[in-house]
Amino acid sequence: MGDDVSERDEISVDGEIVRRKQTHSYFLMNKPKGYVCTVKDDKDRKTVMSLLPDDAGRVYPVGRLDYDTEGLLLFTDDGDLAFRLTHPKNEIPKTYLVRIEGSIGEKELNRLRSGVELDGKLTGKSKVKVVETDKQFTKLHVTINEGRNRQVRRMFEAVGKQVDFLKRIRIGDLGLGSLERGKVRRLTDAEVFYLSNL
After folding, report:
1. Residue 149: pLDDT band by 50, 70, 90 thresholds?
2. Which residues pair with 129 in a beta bridge?
3. Beta strand segments in 43-191, E
4. Are 60 and 77 in contact (CB under 8 A)?
5. Pairing mode, if any, of strands 70-76 and 163-171?
6. Which residues are catalytic?
7. DSSP alpha helix (H) spans, the chain
8. On the CB side of 14, how many CA atoms lie within 13 Å of its CA?
9. Per the structure, how many domains does the chain have?
10. Which terminal Cβ of the chain has fewer Cβ within 10 Å, N or C?
11. Which residues constitute the domain of residue 184?
12. Is the pLDDT of residue 188 over 90?
């Protein structure tokens, strides 16, 4: 009793190595527009970090949503999970609610689905579904498996359409539910398990 151990020491009890349990924190935010996804901003804009609860610890945003984009944003101090969810090779599906001015035709929809050229390279195939339309606007659900800078907005610009509202609503099957804009909640163990196995 009372022996000091260091991080380099190996401890065993009855022949079984004792491993320190790693505990991580996981949060889901419904990000409002007007916030940047950085820890600090050199332009002194509001950051998403200011919306986290005081006891959140040292967590970081998983990926980014741009200043004018709302919706589902994850935070964690679990580097392995953050890497899994953001690395392009894993092709994690992310679904957005998109509103554009006016209507959109099948020709443009098919171009979006099959890939448009951004910076000299085609985007991957995406799922695009019209969910509501009238003479003034069209709402769509768009699912992509990559995450280039401002990708969804630029995809629509490539087919001559302007996005006036953009909100990420799902990562895989994990959605916002009834979480209000600007609010944050902890992920459940089941949700963390789901994301770890996407």
Report:
1. confident
2. 141
3. 60-62, 70-76, 94-101, 117-118, 121-122, 127-133, 137-144, 163-171, 174-175, 184-186
4. yes
5. parallel
6. 66
7. 79-86, 106-114, 151-158, 189-196
8. 0
9. 2
10. N
11. 26-88+175-196
12. yes
